[in-house]
Amino acid sequence: MNKFLVQGSRSLDGGIQIGGAKNSALKLMAASLLAEGLTSLSNVPDIADVAIMVELLEAMGVEVQRTGHRIDISVPHEIEPVAPYHLVERMRASISVLGPLLARIGRATVAMPGGDDFGSRPIDMHLQGLEQLGATFTHQHGDIQAQAKVLKGAEVFLEFPSVGATENLLMAAVLARGTTTIENAAREPEITDLANFLSQMGALIDGIGTSRLRVDGVERLEPISYEVIPDRIEAATYLCALAICGGELHLENARAEHMEMLLRKLEEMGMHISEGNGGVRGKVTERLKSADVSTLPYPGLATDYKPFLVAALSVASGAGMVTENIFAGRFRYVDELVRMGAEIKAEGRHAVVRGVERLSGAPVRAHDIRAGAALVIAGLGADGETIISDAHHVDRGYEDLAGKLSSVGAQVSRT
Ligand code: UD1
Q1: Are residues 13 and 33 in the same domain?
Q2: Which of 48, 210, 258, 361 has the most CB atoms less than 10 A away?
Q3: Is 46 a catalytic residue?
Q4: Res 1: pLDDT
Q5: Ligand 1 pocket, 162 CB below 6 A?
Q6: What is the pLDDT at residue 10?
Q7: What are the helix and strand counts (H, E) for the chain?
Q8: Ligand 1 neighbourhood includes 304 CB (under 6 angstroms)
Q9: Which of 116, 216, 292, 400 is catalytic?
Q10: What pLDDT digit, counting tens, does each position of 325-357 carry?
Q11: CB 5 within 8 A of CB 413
Q12: Residue 380 carries which DSSP code?
């Protein structure tokens, strides 16, 4: 059995501790390959994707020890530079070992990731950027064979501010000869976290947090101890649960500066938001109003927030137009919400959501991490019981979603 059982709830009250950011932790773990020796990461969430990244590092001959939320990564002199299909298939972020492996040992075999529930997910920008630094690629039997005798700094212009391509290029450039500039770089807080991590290891990076990163390559990097930033997407999940149920929540550790657009959107809908006590507090005293939502690269509204916002709009008063500008296929969960009585019409990149008073509990299926979490919080705004199957998708990105929601008064359990 692999399900969430959710009962409709009326009010959430209390505090929830926000864990470390999945999308940062995974990249810092990949970046640890850049330095021989012991890297220690703290505030690493206990989630399935981290376990897959541990497996991937171990498959390369790296020793990894997990103690609670801390991970000790001992990188040996010799690494086996292979990311096999059975791991890449389970987690696309495995592709982020490509840049570090090329930089550190000049070769890698990485399985080509396939599409996923967001639709097609190309990696052409990763490969083109790395080619500009001197890497060559051949495709064989589903694998990418990468080679680089030496990586040399170059000016790289990204067609789109891709998170993954920016990260791979940054991790390659730090050990390349000479200067690399990445123009139209993605600016997500997780990229800033990676850049800060690399800088502390001894990398020379200018323009951190901007769309123009300048990297002066260094000979070697040193392993360090580092704390992962809090997960803004996990925080967004609980804020949208509050939007649906009403009440008052304090999200401990959440950083308002990482999710300003989301907080503004929720305020526009009628949530009272305040910062302080090392976190973010939200309060909802009446049914929220609808709003239009349009996803954009950071600092715009993250595409990862969208399923939660659509769940919240499903029970808000009025209608809202939702536009997806990052992943064209990211509306699959809408059919599941419609099974629960939501009034949503989705076509192409757009959806119109007309809020209903209450959804109606139903059996539904999680197709990916965020869509699954959105169905769980939608279940809080439904009469009766919602059963969400394929809950393992949610475990990829959430540490104890059911426990955290239950601790503030929701009725959510995991079978
Ligand atoms: C990361 C996040 C994901 C988030 C996304 C956008 C991780 C593990 N995942 O994914 O949760 O939703 O950022 O904020 O950090 N593209 C190309 N060619 C490429 C690369 C990307 O066309 O080589 C396109 C993608 O198809 C998509 C857009 O660029 O349409 C953005 O993708 P990208 O920012 O790269 O997302 P990920 O790094 O895969």
Answers
A1: no
A2: 258
A3: no
A4: 57
A5: yes
A6: 81
A7: 14, 26
A8: yes
A9: 116
A10: 998 878 889 999 999 999 999 999 999 999 999
A11: yes
A12: H
